[in-house]
Amino acid sequence: MIHPSSIFLVACLFLVPSSTLAATISSTPAQTITGIGGSGAWWPHDLFQFPEATRQNISNLLFSQDGLGLSSYRWNVGAGGVGVENPGRAPETFYRGAGNYDWSADPQGVYFLTAASTRGVTDLTAFANSAPAPLTSGKTSCGSSFVDGKVQRFGTGNAFGTYLAEVVEHFRNQGINIRYISPINEPDSDFGPVPCGQEGMKVAPNQRAEVVNGLWNALNSKGLANTVGILADEGNNLDAASSEYGTWLPQVVSKVAALVHHTYDFPSDSAYLSYVNSTRTSYPNKPTWMSEVCCSLGNADGSGRGWSQGYDPTINNALMFSGLVFQSFVVAQEPHYDFWTLVSGGIGCAPQNNATCVSNPNTNGWNDGLIYYDSQYASNRNFQFYTTKRFWTYKHFGNFLKPGSQRRAITGTGATNNMIAVSTSTKYFVIAMNPTNSATTLTLTVPDNACGVASYRTSGSEDFAKLGGASKSGGNWNLGLNAMSLTTFEFNRVAC
Ligand SMILES: *[C@@H]1O[C@H](CO)[C@@H](O)[C@H](O)[C@H]1NC(C)=O
Ligand SMILES: *[C@@H]1O[C@H](CO)[C@@H](O)[C@H](O)[C@H]1NC(C)=O
Ligand SMILES: *[C@@H]1O[C@H](CO)[C@@H](O)[C@H](O)[C@H]1NC(C)=O
């Protein structure tokens, strides 16, 4: 005998057609997108040693529209690597003393900064993990602290600020229009003791205003204070950021262009909203954005996120990571998103010995890259690149959420936080993710004239596959969302 509830269940299954998943794009804009990017740490040191044709290829993969089409790039201004044991994480410094610079230093970082600039990346940031070693408490580039004017009669705020401002002025004079300086990346840790795994300088919350003042004064004296914005304080997580702002930010809030944060706490939606709500209340009109994250395992639906070792190049992790991007843009309504290192040697296996290992998860590697290279390249001369599914999903954001485009809220029974719509003067783009194992169809209402012209899908078996535009029925658009996929739907803003 069939239980009545089973009949009801079967009936429901037949009644779940696409029409129940309906959504509408708002006719009014939300925030304006300003950048999609990631950092040049620390792969430039390795990739600079690759053949020139290969270096050009990786630059295209990152910065050209044929590749990720990034609009933001964070160049790591080295502190000389004093005390850092891993040479690949010890970027050279220009600093030879006050006003004395060696502009031939850091050819690795400058190469890829230039590659980004010549390919039209507009949002260029210079960020420092430490002041040059001679300026820090222990004369090292890690395991030391910022020396402020309370510790020493002449604090180093002005010297450090002058250094960063003169570096940026030098490259701007070469046509590389660096727009932002972030002087203190993850200031709560010195990443010590020496020997350290990377550069880092501890800058206590009550020292941060001196750093910002020193940098702002230096920029101002060069006439750059309105051209080059100061980003701070790149706290490792949202809790640290918001609990420390009160100590330093009110003194210098007018000198900071944006409050940028990392999300290594992998916040819940409500924790993220609580951060942005309280920050917007205390510091009105000061944008916040996400400037660094990596290294999480977890599932496509976002469960199981958290910082950890482990390499997962599959669609599972790519959708998990896409969920983080949606969270910053859709839940927190921030304007800008940067991943961490973009390119990594942390595959966790030897691709020359096993051609399939790069496409399969392992526990030895790290999810700190979108593109990978063989960490043994120097001895085995393997200069190949390996793209993960994270590369292909991030390409959707890099290719279609361009600076100046405006997000439009999506509402309705079918709307989720895993979809974003943006408009430009001529296009709508809708990027939507289905992290489940069954295909669905979303019926979408667009507020004015539109014509579906193309779609692009990344799934377990497709890498940004170009497909036909959304089809129209009864005045609405049907967006097919395959199981475990991310799809972009492109519309022209004219009637078909
Ligand atoms: C560069 O990329 C092109 C296009 O993907 C490829 O055909 C070529 O082999 C690559 N060359 C190198 C040196 O990586
Ligand atoms: C944050 O603000 C939004 C919009 O005003 C509100 O809907 C949300 O409930 C707030 N969330 C928290 C955690 O304060
Ligand atoms: C190659 O890598 C795959 C996936 O990581 C693994 O399952 C397989 O055992 C490896 N093969 C060898 C010969 O090590």
Explain what you see.
By secondary structure, the protein is of the alpha/beta class. 27% of the residues lie in helices and 24% in strands. It contains 11 helices and 25 strands. The strands form 5 sheets. It has a 10-stranded mixed β-sheet with strand order 22-21-25-19-18-17-1-20-24-23, with helices on one face. The site of one 2-acetamido-2-deoxy-beta-D-glucopyranose has 4 residues, from helix 8.
SSE topology:
Layout: H1 4-14, E1 22-32, E2 35-40, H2 43-47, H3 52-63, E3 72-76, E4 95-97, E5 100-101, H4 107-118, E6 123-127, E7 144-145, H5 157-173, E8 180-182, E9 201-202, H6 208-221, E10 229-235, H7 238-252, E11 258-262, H8 269-282, E12 288-292, H9 315-331, E13 336-338, E14 343-344, E15 371-373, H10 377-380, E16 385-387, H11 389-400, E17 406-411, E18 419-423, E19 427-434, E20 440-445, E21 451-459, E22 465-467, E23 471-473, E24 476-481, E25 485-492
Parallel strand pairs: 1-20, 2-3, 2-13, 3-6, 6-8, 7-9, 8-10, 10-11, 11-12, 14-15
Antiparallel strand pairs: 1-17, 4-5, 15-16, 17-18, 18-19, 19-25, 20-24, 21-22, 21-25, 23-24
This protein binds 2-acetamido-2-deoxy-beta-D-glucopyranose (NAG) (3 copies).
* Approximate strand percentage: 15-25%
Alpha carbon gyration radius: 24 Å
Poorly predicted runs of 5 or more residues: 1-19
Helicity range: 25-40%
Adjacency order of strands in the biggest sheet: 22-21-25-19-18-17-1-20-24-23
Q: Categorize the overall geometry.
A: globular
Q: What ligands are attached or bound here?
A: 2-acetamido-2-deoxy-beta-D-glucopyranose
Mean pLDDT, to the nearest integer, reads 95
Count of DSSP E strands? 25
Task: Supply the helix-strand structural class.
Answer: alpha/beta
N-to-C span: 53 Å
Give the count of helical stretches.
11
